UniProtKB/TrEMBL annotation:
Source species, domain of life: Bacteria
Record has Chaperone as a keyword: no
Keyword Transcription: yes
Chain ranges of the HTH asnC-type domain: 5-66
Official protein name in the record: AsnC family transcriptional regulator
One GO term of the biological process aspect: response to amino acid
Lineage, broadest ranks: Bacteria, Pseudomonadati, Pseudomonadota, Gammaproteobacteria, Cellvibrionales
Alphabetical keyword list: DNA-binding, Transcription, Transcription regulation
GO CC, any one term: cytosol
GO molecular-function term, one example from the UniProt record: sequence-specific DNA binding
PANTHER family membership: LEUCINE-RESPONSIVE REGULATORY PROTEIN, TRANSCRIPTIONAL REGULATOR AZLB
Amino acid sequence: MTTKLDRYDHMILDTLQHRGRITNQELAEAISLSPSPCLRRVKQMEEDGLIDGYVALLNARKLGLNLMAFIEISMDKHTPDRFSAFEDTIATYPEVLECHLITGQSADYLLKVIVRDMDAYQQFLLQKLTRIEGVSGVHSSFVLKSPINSTALPVD
């Protein structure tokens, strides 16, 4: 079920996605709304689950995380237990930024992984990923450049 949003709600969501640390006063001014109704709207969208939370976006390169890969994973069995065990295990690996169960490919999962360098990737692959029970195939693609890298969702 989707929540009915008006233009102020759209402006609030768009602004918060780009300026998460904005004060309520600044947000209200940015969207031309009084602070009290602005705050009520934000609180309501938080309660409704439209706003999951607030985070700081870190600079991966400045943290020494220079290698990003997309990894297609094939599983040996397509059972709920096998998928659940894989998902529980992969969720414990901090290198994994995203994990998606996919269709339309020869793979079952698509992972987005970030590590320091190729040596760290090799260690992740051989010491962690391929040791998960049920993993029968791994295909890696390495990111050369990210001309678009956004966390903002289209809210218009």
